[in-house]
Structures are given as structure tokens and as C-alpha cells.
Amino acid sequence: MTFTARARATGLAPELSKAPGFPTIALAGVTKRYRGGVGIEDVTLEVPSGEVFGFLGPNGAGKTTTIRLLLDLIRPDAGRISLFGLDARRDSVAIRRRVGYLPGDLALYERLTARELLTHFSHLRGGPPWASVASLADRFELELDRPIRSLSKGNRQKVGLVQALMGDPELLILDEPTSGLDPLVQQQVHQVIRETASDGRTVFLSSHVLSEVGRIADRVGLIRQGQVMAVKRVDELRGRPVHLVDVRFADDPPSGVLTGVPGVGRVEERGHDVHLELTGSFDPLVHELARHRVADLSIREPDLEELFLSFYEGDDVQA
Amino acid sequence: MSRRDNHPATLHSVFERTFHEERRALTGWVAGLVALAITMLALYPTIRGNTQFSKLFESYPEAFRSMFGVSDYTSGPGYLRAEVFSLMGPLLLSVFSILWGSDLTAGEEQRRTIDVLMANPVSRHRVVLEKWAAMLVGTAVAAASLWLTLLVGDPLVQLHLGVAALSAAVLASWLVATVFGTIALAVGAATGRRGLARGLGALAAVVAYLLSSLAEVVRWLEPVRPISPWYHALGVDPLGGGFQALHLLVLLAIIIIAAAGAVVAFDRRDLGT
């Protein structure tokens, strides 16, 4: 039985993974409702092979719901979900053979040691050799022979990562992989994600911290209250020439003085202070300012969070 | 074989892991059942041939005697029927089976380990069936410990049971325990709630027991008695009557139906919600 399992695993994967044209993840109009609340509503999303996709949103926005739908732990009320071009429900076992998953709310078998748990899962996965599992464990400096119940949160998370990474899955699904971890382990996690990506494998990563997602993802999807509000390339977010400008006038400025200047958007006036967002050339703004007495002027580049918000609030939204 | 040798530990299948996690509890239940059997064996010499006891129970109303299985109390089979097989033995096995059965899938859901488990390429029905098999084997080990203790003790205290009668009674006890354990599994698989699974499993066991034993004395209950698994297991006196294929088949059928229900229900649900 172990041999047939392995034969199936190695026999199937190459054929299926070479099937061209299928995005690694595809959700089409997917809705999942829970009693007494929204799960996700009409979510359409595609993640091509080889991409690191960051799924961003506050807690309770529907990130975990989406991820658990991908793994067939829960079933959608409407819509279609496929991975590698296979049906999420009908072909779930074949899909899961090619996916590594780290749950957000990670729970492990407390009575087992890490070694027992990893042996068990590697067997269920049809056989990454123990040597490769052990080298992963080494890398995270995992203590294999202590019962899991005696491990710290960080060490449990490492066990979760090793079980997700074992056997080099084509798709890695990580639900809030770094939440609650110390910075050193966070670095390790980011490193692993980068390596996975550079192997040409796909990573689907959820987080409620944009700066984290921005550092490692190729694209970011924003989900709020069960709806995907926007999907943007990170370099597109960064590449957009936007600056945040704070002006302090020496005198009371005439109301609306900077509104309507070409490139100026999102103006906020507060006494002598005016905050605005400038897109494109500085020239029209500088000319306008030159007609007034300016006490202080600061210009800075927005961080990713503010960039995303400017897309989000500026109607520049695509689903 | 060679690939197995790459792994230092021996946990492989869901079956093995389920069994491994429960091994301490199983050891405890085995110890309890053996202790029960030894106690009953040790007490028998004071009862064997004791006419006082015979007279005492003869003075009780017929209804009482049949309900508590104390007719023929001073003979070996009569004594064991009253002390072990009318209630304690099958009850302990049933409690063990219900506790384990209710925890098989619902426990994984409530402890939220279902996510990492089902991320592996195993189908839901395989998970249910392997876990169920672990419970069947574990309960069988517990039942076998009772069987073995009584088998060894029989000649020592001259119970004069006979291997066949003893085996039939233990088999019936194991089957009836498995009925309620599998019902608990099915409720847990259908709802994800371990407490509910325990409660309904225990309720089924109590109702079945009451129905079977009350029907001995309450005439209008007699027609509905065959719906009680307890009746098919122990109400038909396996210790006196030996193996009774038809009744054993009824128990087997209930077990298979409940297990099939567990598989189907678990396959259709949202897990861990």
C-alpha cells in the first residue's frame, strides 16, 4: 500500500502540473455564508502559477474562510473553486497531494512528539523521505523528541511550517504564518517563502499586516467584510508616483486654496495646515505655493498601507 | 519496507495514530476490567453452593430476579451473569466505546486538529473508517482482557463456564459496546460536537438497557424489546445459550448502518466550524 501510494504521488504530479493554461488557484463567484454572519460574498480571484499572492484584510474579513474553502474543509454555497484546474471538492485528495497548508489557528496533536507527528504526516503524504523532513526540522532548530504540548508558540508554529513544507508542495497556503512569532522566526518564515517562490512554486499567504505582505508578495488582494475590494501588483503600488505633502501657511490660507491644482487630491485643511496627496508633477503645486507665504513644507513617500488606502478610497478599485 | 525504515518512529496511518493516542486510556480500562473480573472470581468460592443465597433470592419476587439476572445465582454461569454480564461488563465496555467513539472525529474538530489532518491527501471516508477501526480493535482488546481473565480463573474457582459460553457472552458484550460507540461516532461525525455525541450515545445505551431488562417484567414492553441492541446481546442469555447467529447478525447490522451513517454524514459537512 505504501508503494502504490508513492507510485500514485509521483506518477500523477508531473502530468497534472504540466497541464497548461490553468491558474493554480481560481475562485469564481464564490459565496459562503454562516449562520449569523457573512463568510465571503461573490469572491472571484485567480492566482497564476509561480506567484506569491498576499491576501490582506482585518481579522474576520473572510481570509480564513477563503483558505478553508480551497482545502475543501468547508464547501461554498455558490460559485466554483478549482486548484491546478481540478475541482476543489471532487478532486480534493489529488489537490491536497500537491498543497502544503499552515492553518491560522494552528492546533497539533498535543500528545505526540514533533517527530511522531511529522512521521505520521509524511506517511499520509505518501512519502517525502525522512531525511528531507529532518533537514527541514534542523533548519528551524526544532526539538523533535519533546511532546508538542511542552513546546512554545513559536516552536509549535515551526512544527506547522515543517509539515506544510515537507515534500516541496507546488502550492503553499499559509494563513497568518507569522502572527505571534518573534522577529527572528518571522525572518525565517519570510526566507522560506522567498525560496519557495524562487523555485517557481506558488504561495498564497494571508496577513493583516500590509507591510509584511508588501515585502514578500508579488500581488496583494484586499478583503473586507467578505468581499475582495482590490487586487494590485505590489510594484504597481510602489511605482505609482504619489507623494504626501504637508504645508503650513504663515497666514490663514484662503479656503480651498490648493483644491483643483493639477495633480492634487485628497486635500485636508486644518487651520494653517493643509495635507494633500500629489500625483505626477510637482510643478503646478510649487507655482501655486509660491503665491503664498509658506512657513513649513514637508514631502514624503507614503508607506504601502497609505498607498493601498489611496487606491481603495479613490474609486480606483478593481475586483 | 525500505521506505518505512527511513522513518525512525512507527506512527504511520490514521489508524495507528488514533490507537497510539488512546493507549494510556486503553491500559486503564483493561486494568479496570481485569480487576473487576478478578474480584468477582475471588468472591465466588464464598457463594458457590451457598444455600443461604439461593433461599434469599428465591424469596425475592420473580420480576426482581429476572430483572437483575439473579436467578440461579449460586451456579457459576448464574453468578457471572448476575455480576458481570447482565450489566457491569458490557456497561464498562460501552462507556469506553462511547467516550472513544464520540472523540474520533468530533474531538479532532473541537481541538481544531482537523485542519492539519485534512490538509493531507486522505479522503474523509478513509479518516472515519480508520478511526472507527481503531476503536473496534481497542474495544476488542478491552473485551479480550475480560475474556482471558475469566478463562484463566474459571478452573481455579470452578465456575464451569465452558469456553464457548464465555466467548459468546464476551463477544455479545463487545458487539453491544461497539453499537453504542459507533452511534456516538456517527453523531459526532454528523454534528462535530463531542458532548452531544457522548450524550446521545449514553442515552441510547441506557434506553436500550432499560427496555431490555424492563421488558422481562413489563408485559406491554415485550413486543418492542427486539429494537433494543442490549436485548440481542445479553437479553438472550449468551452465557447459557451460547452463540446465537441471528441476534449477533442484528447487532452487526446496526453497527454497519451506524458506521455507514458516520461516513456519509462526515463527507457532507463543513468541518470545524
Keywords:
heterodimer; A: 319 residues; alpha/beta; six-stranded mixed beta sheet; 11 helices; B: 273 residues; mainly alpha; 0% strand; globular; disordered N terminus
Chain-wise SSE layout:
The complex is a heterodimer of chains A (319) and B (273).
Chain A: H1 2-17, E1 25-34, E2 37-47, E3 52-56, H2 63-70, E4 78-83, E5 86-87, H3 92-96, E6 99-102, H4 114-124, H5 130-139, H6 153-165, E7 171-175, H7 183-198, E8 202-207, H8 210-216, E9 219-224, E10 227-233, H9 234-239, E11 242-249, E12 264-270, E13 273-279, H10 283-289, E14 294-300, H11 304-313
Chain B: H1 2-5, H2 14-21, H3 23-47, H4 51-59, H5 62-67, H6 76-85, H7 88-103, H8 106-110, H9 114-118, H10 124-157, H11 163-191, H12 194-214, H13 229-235, H14 238-241, H15 245-268
Q: Helix segment count of chain A?
A: 11
Percentage of residues assigned to helices of chain A:
25-40%
Oligomer: heterodimer
Number of domains of chain B: 1
Structural class of chain A: alpha/beta
| Low-pLDDT residue spans of chain B | 1-8
Distance between the termini of chain A: 46 Å
Distance between the termini of chain B: 39 Å
Overview of this protein structure:
The complex is a heterodimer of chains A (319) and B (273). Chain A is built from 11 helices and 14 strands. Chain A has helices at 2-17, 63-70, 92-96, 114-124, 130-139, 153-165, 183-198, 210-216, 234-239, 283-289, 304-313; strands at residues 25-34, 37-47, 52-56, 78-83, 86-87, 99-102, 171-175, 202-207, 219-224, 227-233, 242-249, 264-270, 273-279, 294-300. Chain A has a 6-stranded mixed beta sheet with strand order 6-7-8-3-9-10, sandwiched between helices. In chain A, 41% of the residues are buried. By secondary structure, chain B is mostly helical. Chain B has one domain (3-46, 88-268). In chain B, 76% of the residues lie in helices and 0% in strands. Chain B has helices at 2-5, 14-21, 23-47, 51-59, 62-67, 76-85, 88-103, 106-110, 114-118, 124-157, 163-191, 194-214, 229-235, 238-241, 245-268. The longest helix of chain B is centred in the middle third of the chain and has 34 residues, at 124-157. Classes of the chains: A alpha/beta (319), B mainly alpha (273). The interface between A and B is large, with 46 and 31 residues.
